[in-house]
Protein 1
Amino acid sequence: MKNKILPIVTFVALSALILTYFIPHRVYADDSLHDGSGIFFIGDSTTNSFKHYGVISEERVWTGVGNTLSMWDISRKRISLSASALEKYKALDGYGNFSEKIRKDGDKYSMKIVDATALVRPKNLVITLGINGCACMSEESFLREYSLLIEAVMASSDTTKIFLNSIFPVAQRSSAVKNADIERANAIIRSLAMKYRLNYIDSFSYLRAFTDKNGDMDRKILDSEDGIHYSARGCKLICDFIEEEVCKANG
């Protein structure tokens, strides 16, 4: 009898482990938008990978037309919405006041970042920006553009808790940007978090622990040829880490 029970117990335990690993946590994957609960993300193409791999539902990931965002004039940028995501936004209270601010871009739609935050009023908003700009913008320009975005978001939704997330590290093969550029930009982002009394998430340091024997980023989590965009496994690690940091900040 014991021999028959053991395989069943083992199967149940393994099934629970698999479900825990592969199903995203509800705090950042809940499809319900009615009260802005959970976590929303603003970012460039590295953040877009979260919805590309299905780690985060698409309506919670705000990136620009072309699935990225650059730092230039960032506070005025528009986020891209699919038709299905737009349908969920239409169900939100107050959508009628924003309907005229929706613009059709090809087979998708878009609205300004500030209009999206004013409509959804997210409880938690994680901003991960700077990979597109940190290697070529002056520190003054980077600081100014990021500050304008923070102030615009704060003005559009005063109940939103904003988290400034560090730019993710890149692999040595990256030619567009190097980790030295990223570390300088992250120092600016950290200083802005202190200035505006926001939470800073140090994803850079967390991810730098995942290196190979040569000290380069592990290809299991950062497998793209450009050395910038993370794999599905990498995105899951990042989102789990962000969730932990957000939960800590919320007590």
Note: The chain has one domain: 25-249.
Protein 2
Amino acid sequence: MPPRNFMRNAQPKLDDAAGALADLLSVSQLPVRSADLPIDRIRPNPFQARKTFTDLDQLAQAITAQGFTTRLRVRPDPTATGFFQLVFGERRWRAAQLAGLAAIPCDIAEHSDDDLVEIGLAENIQRQDLDPLEEARALQAFIDQRGYSIRRLAERIGKDRGYIENRLALLRLPSDVQQLVEQRPDSIDAARRIGTLPTPEERAPLIAQVASGEVSAQTVRAIVRERVRSASPDGQSSIRHRIAADTQIISVVLQRWEGLLQEADTSAAHQAIGEKLDDLEARIRVLRALLR
């Protein structure tokens, strides 16, 4: 049985990052009740994007020494009566298990699945708990599985559209370059440049140099730019042909959207096209950044 002060020290408030995102997502006004819950009745957030939790032993020692000083946020588990699912705070929950606590203080509220997804992702992003690719996959899941536009997603997690688009661009990198980002999360800018090289053979030496810290992002940028400039004329012609074909497709789509906006009932078209234009503008900003 843990010492009584493990519960007495708990404050009925959200921690800094989670509290800020709860306010942002307008869920902090949900009716809340507080209780000390058996730790074995609490289950992880089923939508948790984070796969690894570091420094749990250190946090467990702090809990043993100082007590559990904040409340976790949970919801009743919709699949199992008498159990609960974490809304946020999984690292502290895991550390509390290591510390041997039998119960932990929690705030209980009726959160939706969307709340769990959004709060979990926003907490991880604000705390920088996800590596860039984990974050990108979670953001893409919002778009693919829940129909979010980039604009709505940015608003919901408190980031600008450019940030979202830059993260999503990582998923379009070749797999060898993605492995570099996983190994060196600080190499995103260099990885994007390397990803523009067409073959694994061209990318491999630069990937190895970046992974070992031998070259800077600025050096990579210069090397890649020189290689592109030295490409064969036939290769340049092929690139121009593909770009011209893509431009024609884009032009046709934009003309069709223009026609939709000129129709009598345009409210739905205005909203849908407005969101897609925001997404396109974010992609254009990424392209312009790559041209520098």
Note: Confidence is low (pLDDT under 50) at residues 1-26.
Protein 3
Amino acid sequence: MRFVVMRFPGGAVLACWAFLLAAAARAQTADVRGDGLDQVVACDGGAASLQGNGNTIAFRGACRSLDLRGEGDRVQIDIVSGGSIHLEGNGDRVRYRVVNGGESPRVLVRGEGSTVVATAAPEEPAYSERSVAPLVNPEPRLPRLATRTLPPPRPAPPTPPSAVAKPAPTAEPSPPPRPVPAVVPATGPIVLGGDGQTRDLDCTGRDVQIEGNGGVFTLRGGCHSLAIQGNGEQVKAELLPGVPLTVQGEDDVVTYTVHGAGADPNVWVNGHGSTARKAARPG
């Protein structure tokens, strides 16, 4: 610890600790650095930071933001509504859960093969058991009860002929049920991979991520967010008011409408030759 000593007229001495404000700021950041780590880290409402390669990290406790710089990292994070995720590196995978629901975070990805997707709940089994603290006061087991062997049951008396049930008359066969169209449940993100696909989907209230190349997609019903990472995609989408629309691939063409009353989506385009424009209705 370094001290700064100031002398004033009359011999008064004022001693203060240098870097006090800097230390307080660091205490509010969950900062992880290293390679090959496997940990669960508490944010406690602060920012989360990870620098290194090949790590498996879970940030818990309503993090304000995530700054990831490395390659081959696997990260799960609880993030507050309207937070931010900044990723720089190749082959990273981030799964986030918005605490208590709310607005999805602002996402910025710079790197090849890296993805950021939403998840309904944290996936604890993906992390090593050594990262989880053991129970302090496990519940005691109940004592095993004494058992005894019961005698075999007596055989039932024979049924008289008059009591035998007559077969019911044969009813006419009912017509086969009509096929019910498949409906994707409104939980979890929709991830569209592969190249050259043509899809028409219902994305009502769900996050959508497109990873393939050269696809043609029509998204209906009001998506909760849309992130495009492939190249040469043609997308027509109905988006909920104020949700994020991220285009990171090249030569992508996105046409969107606002599903319902409200503000336009937050559009972010970071790809050569890619465009995103608002239309009256998707074709």
Note: The helical segments are 20-26.
Protein 4
Amino acid sequence: MTAVAEQAVRPAVREFVSGTKQLLIGGQWVNAASGRTFPTFDPATGEKITEEAHGAAEDVDRAVAAARRAFDDGPWSRTTPSERQRLIWRMGDLLLDRAEQFAQLEALDNGKSVAVAQGVDVAWSADIFHYYAGWATKIEGRTITPSVPWIPGSQWHAYTLREPVGVCAQIIPWNFPLVMAAFKLAPALAAGNTVILKPAEQTRSPRCCWASCSAKPGSRTAWSTSSPGSATRARRWPRTTTSTRSPSPAPPRWARRSSTRPRAT
């Protein structure tokens, strides 16, 4: 573990990476349907950090179905804007409360220094959540009095109502994994959507730790983590897909197909 000096790794970080990481679906940690796993490596040393559940089409279907239930029938659809604001703010606080732990995980997964990970990635991500928490109570429509020139003297009344779109799939890159996840997750949750988060296979551990801290019993889970894998034939599709990635080969078919849906950037 060159990126984080062996003797400096916090016990909580050692404990977290000691076991196989599962998928968070519907508020529960579960194995991949296939039972498959894959290793993640420290880019500084090439040493294996941990094993991750290998998500595939069936797992994506389960994640979308769970996110859909949370949106249609679950507690998230009944959460008030004020409650969403407090929950999203708490996610930012969680990052700050465990800043060193998240920074070490980011360094192990990503290869950047702990100082940069803590001073930039963790602090910035917390700030993003705190900022968008306030938007949960600021999203509102308009009342309009239209003028209809072809009907003189007529009076009309119209209004707009901003509503969440539903389930959002969010594809996260490896270079700023915490920051990019925060940029996508926070506004989607503030608007009342539910989310499937697909982290890069190289840098999944910080999001797993984040999810394990936030998805406590009794909490209102509005997002799931869908692990990287060969999710090419998923039958269920989210309403919106958003991704941030460097130029690369064509995305997997499940991502290309979902691009026919309305896109959020």
Note: Confidence is low (pLDDT under 50) at residues 1-7, 229-235, 245-265.
